[in-house]
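#lab-general

N.A. 3:47 PM
ok so I finally got the sequence cleaned up, no stray characters, all 315 residues accounted for. can someone with queue access submit it? mine expired

B.Y. 3:52 PM
send it over

N.A. 3:53 PM
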Amino acid sequence: MNTLPRFLALTMLTLPATVAVRAQVPDARAPEKAQAPVPPGFALIPPGEFVMGDALDGDQDAKPHKVSVSAFYMQKNLVTKAQWDEVRVWALQHGYTDLSEGLGKAADHPVVMIPWFDVVKWCNARSEEDSLTPSYYTDAARTKVYRAGKTDLTSAMVTWNATGYRLPTEAEWEKAARGGLAGKRFPWGDTISHSKANFFNFGNMAYQTGSAGVHPDFDQGDDPGTSPVGSFAANRYGLHDMAGNASEWCWDRCGDHPAAAETDPNGVLAGSIRALRGGGWNDIPYYCRVAHRSTAFAGYAFISGGFRPARSVVR
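B.Y. 4:20 PM
back already:
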């Protein structure tokens, strides 16, 4: 198995300047009613406006702009290898024929080495296992649940207000990662150290402190150098590992942020590259910032790439 060098950040791809059309969530959100109980293992991310992106460290594709996001649920921890395996076993017995085995250092470590295609199929499988409505379909009429193959899903193939599991959009992920803390590099503030997250301390950035290299507590001489989920303090919304440990697949195809304000955006309409957020155990601090946008082809699996699901608030 090929692995990324410990200090190597995720591949960053230059996107065409002509890509400008962005999709908005096509399904109207349900009217306000009494709040349903928060699903076990999830946190409620409140609705509201925040500034997505920042201009702190020269990122050219994370231009700050205002975004309003509806309330949603986010899993508190990255999906573990044990959680991946449990759903995968069920899925392979119920029409999901090609889910990757994935890789995990231990049952309570994040699953990695899983492509975007398999992540969204796994979300559907978990939805069906839990008797919830799946989010992803292979047709715009949403008549055939996505269970196998490598379908280049469009926003029209997603039931955004389904009861089931799905990937967060980039806007949802960044709002959740910030935890209500505005204008900071990380979910807790402006500096990062191994007491806060599992990452590669490159040693040449003013906003990193403490021990250098990979995290000394989790460097066992082999890859992946992940840590058990929940090893570090949660942010203000109760979410762990929103910086470091494993990068997190998001729904969006990647394109430029607009200057104008947006409401519930879910990325540009075309392109084969999907977004990842948060950085992993082998990423330097720059790539662990909440505003940073990493990218990869949907069929690519890598040693620090994982995910956590979201759910829409359906009343």
